[in-house]
Amino acid sequence: MKPSFLPVCLAVTLLFISTPAAAVVSEVLTTEAAALAPDPSDDPGSERASSTEAPSLGGPATAATDGDGEPLGTISARASSSEGAESSVPTSAAVSAPPSQISQPLQEDAPIARYDAFARLGARWVTDPRFDLVSENDVMPRLDLGIGYVPGWMNGTLTLELAYSLSGTQAPLFEELTAGLMLHSIGGAGSFTLLDHGIGRAFGRAGASLIFANLELRDENLSFDEPALVQTTLLLGLEGVVGYELQLPINVQRQPQGARINLSVEVGYELTPFAADFDVFHRSGIGKSTPPRIASRAIDVGQVDLSGWQLRFGGGIRF
Fold it and tell me: pLDDT 10s digit of each residue in the chain, 319 long?
């Protein structure tokens, strides 16, 4: 019987010996294989594979995540927002020059107020037949002296003027008397530039004035100290002219704001809405002679319309 139990005992002994050894060998092989195998978290394919896996039927659905456990939708949103932010940054903000190196545009000189001083010499043609009492050819010479102001905010297109005017004429009357008429006027006007081409400009001017008309009648056979028949009346004058002005710069550089000489010619019409009425023509200087003269009664010599055309040549300086 002893020989028959020997194989059985040997087989049982080998079974107990071989089971722990096989487990140990299997564990060692498994550990080495795990060490040599690539990490699933480093493989993009494994991430996509894990993100596309369907949720198990037994548990709730979960969103796909990356290796750090953050949803892939959040990652893509952050990536797109960061790309939009980078594209929205202007290139000028990326490279900016110091303020001292930035070239500033050239600015023209700001317009400033200017002043004029002028003198004009011309004549007035009066067409009223009653004017023949004091004039042989219906012409009354005229001299104007004035100043002007050019506001800066109008860029030199408007000139405001204030002027004094003197005009007069005389003519013999009945070969015994001399009749003379003198006009003194103070007026203001505005001159507007109609066309400007650098060295010259076309302009129009409109204004109003107060006219002091003085009519005098003197006897040539009497001495100069003898009083004459005189009367002064007040009139309103309305004037409108057009003309051309040549502008000659004084400085060589021809700067727009520099001083210049103006030469002008103009033609226009002055209207006196009311005729000059000489209705209290009287002798001047009563009581100054020796012996005193007897006072005489004032006489009415009539009216005269002083409206007429005008032609003037002028010169001035702007500074």
Answer: 444 555 555 555 555 455 554 554 455 445 555 555 555 555 444 444 444 444 443 444 444 444 455 454 444 445 444 444 444 444 444 445 454 444 444 444 566 888 999 999 999 999 999 998 888 889 999 999 999 999 988 888 899 999 999 999 998 887 778 889 999 999 999 999 999 988 899 999 999 999 999 998 887 776 555 667 888 999 999 999 999 999 998 875 555 567 899 999 999 999 999 999 988 776 765 545 555 555 556 667 789 999 999 999 999 999 8
CA of residue 281 relative to chain centroid, distance? 56
Longest pairwise C-alpha distance within the chain? 205
Q: How far apart are CA 126 and CA 270, in angstroms?
A: 10
SS3 301: coil
- The CA–CA distances, whole Å, from 65 to 17, 51, 71 equal 48, 7, 4
DSSP characters over 153-219: GGTTSEEEEEEEEEEEEEEEETTTEEEEEEEEEEEEEEEEEEEE-SSEEEEEEEEEEEEEEEEEEEE
Cβ-based neighbours of 198, under 8 Å, separated by 6 or more? 247
Residue tagged 């317009």 (tokens) = 111
Handedness of CA 117, 122, 125, 130 (dihedral sign): positive
- How many residues comprise the chain? 319
**Residue that has been written with the tokens 């002083």 in this structure:** 306
The rounded distance, in Å, linking the Cα atoms of 221 and 208 is: 40
Question: pTM above 0.70?
Answer: no
Q: Hey, is 50 helix, strand or coil?
A: helix
For the four alpha carbons of 219, 222, 223 and 226, in that order, the dihedral sign comes to negative
> Exposure string (b/e) for 36-54, b if CB count within 10 Å is 16 or more?
eeeeeeeeeeebeeeeeee
Instruction: Report yes or no: 234 and 211 within 8 Å, Cβ to Cβ.
Output: yes
